[in-house]
Specification:
It is a single chain. The chain has 110 residues and is of the alpha+beta class. The protein has four helices and four strands. The protein has helices at 2-8, 54-69, 79-84, 86-99, and strands spanning 15-18, 28-32, 37-42, 73-78. Strands 1-2-3-4 form a four-stranded mixed β-sheet, with helices on both faces. β2 and β3 form a beta hairpin. The termini are far apart.
Length: 110
Amino acid sequence: SFETQLKLRQVRTYETEYMIGDGSERPYDFAWPEVGLLIELQGGTWSSGAHVRGGGYQRDRDKTNSAVMRGWVVMEYTTEDVDSGRAVDGVVNWLVHWGESRKPFSPREL
């Protein structure tokens, strides 16, 4: 799992099922609130899952746009990305190169 991969890479400062406080009830799978990073894992991309069907796809876009407008960085990955290690590589790379420069992160109010 993605969480197992994070632990193997010694990435431990994340939160799961994170709500950004925008009034919605749609949590992000993983978050690093202190640097403003959100991770959304998109399952079912090859099996017509909710994330790739009309209503679910629209809700995901609304969710992402709400976060970005508040200053969050949102990274989205598929099951294939997780299985191949691309997801954890991308997150670790971002944290190493950008994380410190975004501390302390404070989301914008709209």
